[in-house]
Write a structure and sequence with these properties.
It is built from 5 helices and 2 strands, in the order E-E-H-H-H-H-H. It is mainly alpha-helical and about 100 residues long. The longest helix has 22 residues.
Length: about 100
Amino acid sequence: MKYLGLIFDRRLTWSSHLKDKRKKLSSRLLLLRPLLRSNLALPLKLILYKTLLQPLWVYGVVIWGSAKKSNKRIIQPSRISAVVQSLEHSGISPTMQ
């Protein structure tokens, strides 16, 4: 059942919701990839990230954030990929401390 953008299943595992989020993130990331890999200034890339990608992760996190770690891992690779792509072409290593 879908309600206010959250997909509920019978056992509240959030698996189907997180799979749906990952699908949406992947499609947005695919569209944004040329901009994220371009020579845009880092502040502009951060604006793109914060306005177009981050809201998909944080919406409803108070509710689905209690999902098992194994279910939350469904979405993690997309998030890491977006951040790395934003930073690697800006002269900043994502592994820098």
